[in-house]
Specification:
Chain B: This is ABC transporter ATP-binding protein. Chain B: InterPro entries: AAA+_ATPase, ABC_transporter-like_ATP-bd, ABC_transpr_TagH-like, Bact_Polysacc_Export_ATP-bd, P-loop_NTPase. Chain B: Keywords: ATP-binding, Nucleotide-binding, Transport. Chain B: Residues 23-251 form the ABC transporter domain. Chain B: Pfam families: ABC_tran. The complex is a heterodimer of chains A (314) and B (273). Chain A has helices spanning 29-41, 43-57, 66-86, 91-116, 123-128, 133-167, 191-215, 218-233, 240-246, 257-260, 263-275, 282-306, 310-313. By secondary structure, chain A is an all-alpha fold. Chain A has one domain (29-313). The longest helix of chain A has 35 residues, at 133-167. Chain A is globular. Mean pLDDT of chain A is 88; it is low at 1-20. Chain B folds into two domains: 3-93 and 205-259, P-loop containing nucleotide triphosphate hydrolases (Rossmann fold, 3-Layer(aba) Sandwich), CATH 3.40.50.300; 110-169. Chain B has nine helices and ten strands. The chains are: A mainly alpha (314), B alpha/beta (273). Chains A and B meet through helix 2, helix 5 and helix 13 of A and strand 1, strand 3, strand 5, helix 3 and strand 10 of B.
């Protein structure tokens, strides 16, 4: 049996019309989509790895992953207590506000920070096993989603305690001059599509940042450097009506650009508003929708051009 | 049908953290691929102009000295590296067995490691659960499988890894050398499993320095030299050219018996099928 045959290398290669069939190029949209499809299909692998990461982080500790919940509860309670007093807000409404803000913030910043390391930290795997890149991205997003769900326990407890205050139509977050909120009602269900949007965006962010960071190792550093700045600029421990109440005649004026130009704010707001019965504004959804479309398009192009380079770069 | 086609493929590694100047001095070094210096980032041309095709039933041995590109070629064939120039197509599920330690997690139990390794090799959780007992028996690790991997000795780790990789049903099996480091009694057992695994697989590419294993597992061979294919052909031809002597002359009596040949076998028999 003739085992190894040399392909027709003496024939001049004519574009498009090589008799033995042109081999697919590495840089094609088809390969990029194949990677995504195969990655999603390997659900058992990435879900197992994501869960493994969580167990790993808390191994040999008695409470295990429950520490995620506990640390979130402590942080949210302490910050809620402090800032509600600083801003003269009712703790019954301000504590839930801060809690949901923090929980979501952890997911969002996780996509940025852990996303930029998604491929770097899987270097060994990428160099030894041919798996779609999407598997590592999904592993990261899945891990963050598990953390998010653990943190939701804190939300559930707080909701149980402060439900009467939150369900009250017309409640305000701050006592003086706060925007009247509609209160918790059936529109809270919007939190589910919102979380879907967050996860969908998380995936492209992880893919895009992951690929960029393998080539430019400064990217994770940049993200680490700006993450605390981003935290304070985003309305998490403060709320936009505090800013507006300081300038009652203009309703904040130019100061609203401080948060309106911050994409994190919009991602945060689509899920926080329904969860605590705040005013839900459609413009957040437009911004998020825009980011989803542009982000995925950009990611697909980057995947097409640089997906195959990642194993060389890590 | 499984197949791998590689045409005029180059694998160029960019070396980002090396100073161009200092690398330039090493360009003349004999070991390793050619180092190109045209661009700002120094590039190592690990593989140059590789054209080969592997079909169902092929058993290909890879030979060449250290740094000749054997491991890189295996990674190219597995799809881990896609050619920087040229093209490649892989049809079928590839099971690469390059480094037995890869994908092993020190902190989780042997059982868990079996699971993860299996999932990485494209098995499902259910398929792996069926194989766990078989692997446990083969590795002779017994209750140790419940222990975290960090309690294992090096040999035990190799047993575990070998147990997993030899339990799968690969379509295309890519084996790198270095499947050693186990005691010889176990190696005999492992060898049989390895041979079974190769028989099950649709196609095999095996990089090794051990003539006996090559003769046992492969029928044809590729000789890599400084990143390009120096010779392709039947295993005996290539090995003779590579070693400068007929490999059948120097194999041990025991190995010869296993291969079912006499050391005076004429060229053309004993290794074709």
């Amino acid at each position: 049996m003739h085992t190894i045959s040399t392909l027709t290398s003496d024939q001049p290669e004519e574009p498009g019309a090589v008799p033995s069939g042109r081999l697919p190029a590495s840089r094609s949209f088809r390969r990029a989509f194949d990677d995504l499809r195969a990655g999603v299909a390997a659900r058992e692998l990435w879900s197992h790895l994501g869960w493994q990461d969580i167990k790993q982080r808390y191994r040999r500790s008695v409470l295990g992953p429950l520490w995620i919940t506990i640390s979130m509860a402590v942080t949210a309670f302490a910050l809620g207590l402090l800032y509600s007093q600083l801003f003269q807000a009712d703790i019954a409404t301000f504590l839930p506000y801060i809690t949901v803000g923090l929980i979501t913030w952890h997911f969002l910043i996780g996509c940025l920070q852990e996303g930029s390391n998604a491929f770097i930290e899987n270097e060994d795997m990428i160099k030894h096993l041919p798996a779609p890149l999407t598997v590592y991205a999904l592993r990261t997003v899945w891990r963050l989603m598990i953390m998010f769900v653990h943190n939701l326990i804190v939300y559930a407890v707080i909701l149980a305690i402060f439900f009467p205050a939150l369900a009250q139509p017309g409640y305000t977050i701050i006592e003086e001059g706060g925007i009247p909120q509609p209160g918790l009602n059936v529109t809270a269900l919007m939190a589910f599509p919102a979380f879907g949007a967050l996860a969908l965006n998380g995936l492209w962010v992880v893919l895009l940042l992951g690929i960029t960071s393998t080539r430019f190792r400064d990217v994770p550093q940049v993200i680490a450097a700006i993450s605390s700045l981003l935290f304070f600029m985003t309305p998490i421990v403060w709320s936009i009506d505090i800013l507006a109440a300081k300038f009652p005649e203009t309703g904040g004026g130019w100061r609203q650009y401080l948060y309106e130009f911050n994409p994190v704010y919009h991602f945060l707001e689509i899920i926080r508003a329904p969860m605590i019965g705040n005013v839900q504004s459609l413009h957040h959804w437009f911004v998020v929708g825009g980011f989803t479309v542009v982000g995925w398009l950009l990611t697909i192009v980057v995947m097409r051009n640089y997906r195959s380079r990642v194993s060389y770069w890590v | 049908m499984v197949s791998i086609d590689v045409r005029n493929a180059y694998v160029d590694f960019p070396i980002f953290d090396a100073k161009t100047r200092s690398l330039k001095k090493k360009v003349l070094g004999k070991v390793g691929g050619k180092i190109g210096t045209e661009s700002k980032v120094p590039i190592i041309e690990a593989l140059q102009d590789i054209t080969m095709s592997i079909r169902e039933g092929d058993r290909v041995g890879l030979v060449g000295h250290n740094g000749s590109g054997k491991s890189t070629l295996l990674r190219l064939l597995s799809g881990i590296y896609e050619p920087t120039r040229g093209s490649s197509r892989i049809v079928g599920r590839v099971a690469p067995v390059f480094d037995l330690g890869i994908g092993m997690d020190n902190e989780i139990s042997g059982y868990e490691n079996i699971m993860i390794r299996g999932l990485y090799l494209g098995m499902t959780r259910k398929q792996m659960q069926k194989r766990v007992d078989d692997i446990a028996e083969f590795t002779e690790l017994g209750n140790y499988l419940q222990m975290p991997l960090r309690a294992y000795s090096t040999g035990m780790r190799v047993r575990l890894a070998l147990g997993v990789v030899t339990s799968i049903n690969p379509e295309i099996l890519l084996l790198d050398e270095g499947i050693g480091a186990v005691d010889s009694a176990f190696m005999n057992k492992a060898r049989n499993r390895l041979v079974d695994l190769v028989k099950r697989s649709g196609a095999l590419v095996f990089a090794s320095h051990q003539d006996e294993l090559l003769l046992e597992l492969c029928t044809s061979a590729v000789w890599l030299d400084e990143g390009h294919v120096r010779q392709q052909g039947s295993l005996r031809e290539v090995l003779t050219a590579y070693k400068g002597k007929d490999p059948y002359e120097s194999i041990g009596a025991e190995a010869a018996k296993r291969l079912g040949i006499r050391s005076s076998t004429p060229v053309g028999s004993g290794y074709t099928s």
